[in-house]
Fold this protein.
Amino acid sequence: MLKQEYTITVYTENHIGLLNRIAIIFSRRKINIESLNTSPSEVDSVHRFTIVISETEDVVRKICTQIEKQVEVLKAYYNTQDEIVWQELALYKVPTDIIQAEVKVERLLRQHGAKAVVIRKDYTVFEVAGHREETDGLIKVLEPYGLIEFVRSARVAIIKDSDGFHSKLKEFEYREPGTETSTNEFLNENEEVFEM
Amino acid sequence: METLELKAKKPTPSKVDTSISGSEAVLEALIAEQVDTIFGYPGGAIMPIYDALYDYNDVLKHILVRHEQGAIHAAQGYARTSGKTGVVFATSGPGATNLVTGLADAMIDSTPVVCITGQVFAHLLGTDAFQETDVINITTPITKWNYQVTDATEIPAALAKAFYIAGSGRPGPVLIDITKNAQMQMFDYAGYSKCNHIRSYRPKPIVRKEYVEQAAALINSAKKPFIIWGQGVILGRAEKEFKTFLEKSGIPAAWTIMGAGAIPTDHPQSVGMLGMHGNYGPNVLTNECDVLIAIGMRFDDRVTGRLDKYAKQAKVIHLDIDPSEIDKNVKTTVPVWGDCKETLPMLTALVQEKVYPEWLGQFNDHMELEKAKVINEELNPSGEILTMGEVINVLNKLTDGNAIVVTDVGQHQMVTCRYAKFNLSKSNITSGGLGTMGYALPAAIGAAYGDPTRTTVAVIGDGGFQMTLQELGTIMQFKPNVKILILNNQFLGMVRQWQQLFHAKRYSFVDITSPDFVQVAKGFGIPGNSIAKREDLEGALKQMLDHDGSFLLEVFVGKENNVFPMVPQGRGVAEIVLSREEI
């Protein structure tokens, strides 16, 4: 089986120590976490982890069952890239004088969907939200002009359309215990995407 | 052993003043959870709890061990024979880190244990204070759940969750770390209510009837079905349900070492032990059955051998309470999620009443071969020197299979699990998953407290005994009735066997010298005996069993005897060998 990029979405309680409990499931198997984001979810008091790894589906499936086994985890899903809508946010700090003199800023903003967040005499900060290739693309453009600082956020992802997700859920339901996906009082009351 | 009546010295729960200390809240929680025995060791950061314990001495029996590892192994032994949750007290820092081996052991063998550790004052956390360690993070991978309490008001709820999580679903160890300020803090106590629901925690998956139906259909159409069962049957208290299923279906069944004793070992459908040193038939015929029914077992690598050569021809039905076990190692055809106490009766109702005389005959034929090549010589040796197997065989005769047998790790463990007779469930106490040398002596102490009505025999090797022999002091002081049977081959036998078979007999540091064990025991006030001759064996075992109280018997056995059959590492189960020559 081939390794590919999977985005794991975990719905959890918001408790101290849970991040470690989830992280060691990966490190124990010597799997590198490429990106990890924690945030609130669409459900009040339920937390959402978005984790990106490159692995075979078999390994990712087992990891999800191990994550779900943790007492404070409600549910874990895994998706391939084309099953999700995702974004990463990147910030670029560049010297204002050079940029103004040598770059067609307007074109740059248009081409890369970038936004100028801060413009000061000494530096300018651009922001790009997008896929990895897009945020990487702007690094290449700005590097020759003295990129002072660069930072990229973890991935956030929405699992695509409800139809696609329904069939995904059915597959889960087949492989997974019980009717919990349909009786889960916490995930059920919101979006239709969580209904069976 | 005396039985205790539950009554506190002071009528704490109904005091007019409802404020109590965090420490008292801990002990009230234990009483509410029907805990009667605690294994522990005091120290600086847990002193307030021990101070409170002083007043609860009548209600809560505290066994002072000699090392915290002993405390947790004892709690494990207690849990395994009593079916209740074992409880451990330890202090912060080294006290807590000494629990690590036992936590890992309890985690991998699904033993319900609640450990309460003291911690430095909350305001000192992270300052490298005296005896401070980050116990929560150290124990995260080896606990089912852990939690740090820094405020006394959290104590009742934290302990209620701890007992619920440790004992429900697939059991496991839980650690609660309580800072010293929380132990001392007075708070308004509103009573203790047991936990029976955590929204993110589903101890038992909901049983899916369609899978049970599919499983039954598969079983009913099978020509050569084969049951393999593990500790899940015992943990799920489903021995009766399992026996009914077994007898109605007529299917031959083999056990993993953790499952031994769930049904009597001499049951006509019980065909032996699985795994690396299991019986010949169950291993070979795993690769001949058409439907493999796994019940409450997890396809450990010591059971499966090489996975790509394991039961490839068979359709696999897997009954397990833990969904993450399904498809973990062996691909399942029909997963039957759920508590086997619920799923087995459902399955029993749907399977046809059958017998498989020819198929069962195949197991018997393999057993005859194994007897001729291995067992007869092991149990009735032609040579002068005693074998481990014959010691266990005579022990069986004298206990009639009714004793609790606790084993350590190594050759004696494999021999005991192969040959010990078990009539009753919760009789085979051993470190199966982690393989913890030094487990047996402290676990036997706990096992004896867990079920004081039965005889507890700890079978230990000369190596493992030296890892935790300080617990003889615990026996001396508290007098649990533990029969210690040391099978001394003057080697670290299992490692020596591997060095002989796979490392060209390069015996690298397996030659272990031992003290005079009888003299050591004598120093702890425990009588003992040491024998090396066949004519002394039965008498010496009888003397040990008949003695009123603990007794140590050392039996010298063949130095370089090997355990066979054996599935050499990296080979399939069907490639099991019966002798050295076949490797």
Observations:
- The mean pLDDT of chain B is 96.
- Chain B touches chain A at residues 136-137, 140-141, 144-148, 165, 198-202, 205-208, 322-324, 326-328, 335, 337-338 (CB under 8 Å).
- The radius of gyration of chain B is 24 Å.
- The longest helix of chain B spans residues 357-379.
